[in-house]
Structures are given as C-alpha cells and as structure tokens.
Amino acid sequence: MHVLGAGIGWLVYWGSPTYRRHLQSHVALAGLPQRSVSPAARQAGRMLAELPWLWGRSAATPLGGRVHWDNTARLDAALATGKGVLLLSPHIGAFEVIAQSYAERYGAQRPMTALYRPARKAWLRDLVAQSRNRPGLITVPAQLSGVRQMIRALRRGDAVGLLPDQVPPEGQGVWAPFFGMPAYTMTLVGRLARQAGSEVLLLWCERLPGSAGHLVRVQDPPQPWPDSDDAQAWAEAVNEAMEYVIRQSPEQYLWGYNRYKQPRSQPQSNGDGA
C-alpha cells in the first residue's frame, strides 16, 4: 500500500497545479528546503493508500505489532488523574492510526472521543462515520452537539482527540501565527481544557521507514499552556505546539492543505443546537 501510495502522491502532485503551489509555498514558508517537497508528496499518497485498509479493517483484526508507542508513561499518568486528557495532533503521518491504536490500548478503560468534520457528500459522510467508530472510540461531528459530548467525556476522565491545524468555521477561531503567517485557528482547545480542567498532551504518529509500521509519540508541549481563558493566547500556544510536532518529521506533514484560507461561514442550525 505504501509503495502504491507513494506513486499516487507523486501523480497528484504533478496533476494538480493548485496542490503543487500550496505544497511548495507552505514548505518554503516553514523555512524548509524545496528538496522536502518530493518526500512530502509521496507521504501524502501513502496516507491515502492506508485509508481503505484502516477504515475497512474488522474490529476483530488488531493493529497489534504494526504500531509501536513511545513515552506511554506520560499518557498513563495523565489518564490516572481522572481529569481527562486532551490529545492534539496536526495532520502529520498516519493520524488515522492514532485513534484506532489508542482504542485498542486504552479504550476499554478510558475511551477516546474524537472530533471530525463530516464530509459534504451523504454517501461519504455515512461511510466515514461508520468506519471510524470502533470499540473504545467514539467520533462526534464538529458541531455544538459534538463539543458537548467532548466536554462530558473529559469530565468522565476519558480522552478527547483533536486535529487543531484545520481551519474552523467563522466565529470559532482567531487569527494566530502559523510558521510566521496569520492562520485562522480554533479556540476550542483552550475552552475544553479550561472547562474540564484536563491535561493537554501532544500525540502524533509517524510512518517508520521501509513500511516497518508506525510509531505513536506522546509528549508535553515545548512551552507550558496558558494559565488563563485568553483565546488568543491559547490559539498562539496551540500553533506553536503544532509547529514543534511538524518539525519532528516535516516530510510527513500534509503541506498541501490550505492552512491560510479564509474560514467558511457558519452552517445553519440543523435542529440539534448546532
């Protein structure tokens, strides 16, 4: 799958001028050499190639030895407090593996509630929702109802997973530097952490060389989180933490994502309070 995915990533790179422009400019903005572009395109293709197996995998088929963990003692200690743990990862490496692997390792005692943005097409929306929900893993939509479920999960002492480097809807973020350029950044992380009194850790998954599996890393942020409810301070701290993670394995980050786009307008209420 990884060999095939690398080829797909390279074809998409050369077949889409917009994607190629975003990838090149974002790599340059981060101060990385252009020789990083080719590995990043191939890694993006590997991410796509992994999805059919990950989403179609039976719950009875464990990831097992395909996934290794680093620094689990830190996560164990955070979960043991009973105050809940907020786990943050940028769109780097095999981020889809994180939730499934966490569910296998910790889900029986401390399930994970993960936020996702529903696909626009109904058939894809249903497929993704059904594929991601597994024993020990609950996915909730990026709506007010989903936020409420995350708060309840943290107050139960469970884990919540977020990808905070995606552009939130208008009104749900602030502009904060990301690799030196203003990016509309979600304020949800600070709100959740402060309301539930939970710890906030960094968690990301790297593809190991030679298709040798995956490595999930657990770490504290490079700087302490803000000790206040200041949304701007939290957004800046989150972006700084995401930059730190990305620099650990820059060739595996999805540089082609338009992180600096304008936020979309808020959708109309669908009757569930969103």
Structure description:
It is a single chain. The chain is an alpha/beta fold. It has a domain at 65-249. The protein has helices spanning 2-15, 17-29, 37-56, 72-80, 95-106, 122-132, 144-155, 188-196, 231-248; strands at residues 67-70, 85-88, 112-116, 137-141, 159-162, 173-178, 181-186, 199-207, 214-219. It has a seven-stranded mixed β-sheet, sandwiched between helices. Strands 6-7 form a two-stranded antiparallel ribbon. The longest helix has 20 residues, at 37-56. The N and C termini lie far apart (38 Å).
Would you kindly provide a brief summary of this structure?
43% of the residues lie in helices and 18% in strands. The chain has nine helices and nine strands.
Topology (SSEs and partners):
Elements: H1 2-15, H2 17-29, H3 37-56, E1 67-70, H4 72-80, E2 85-88, H5 95-106, E3 112-116, H6 122-132, E4 137-141, H7 144-155, E5 159-162, E6 173-178, E7 181-186, H8 188-196, E8 199-207, E9 214-219, H9 231-248
Parallel strand pairs: 1-9, 2-5, 2-8, 3-4, 3-5
Antiparallel strand pairs: 6-7, 8-9
Helix pairs in contact: 1-3, 7-8
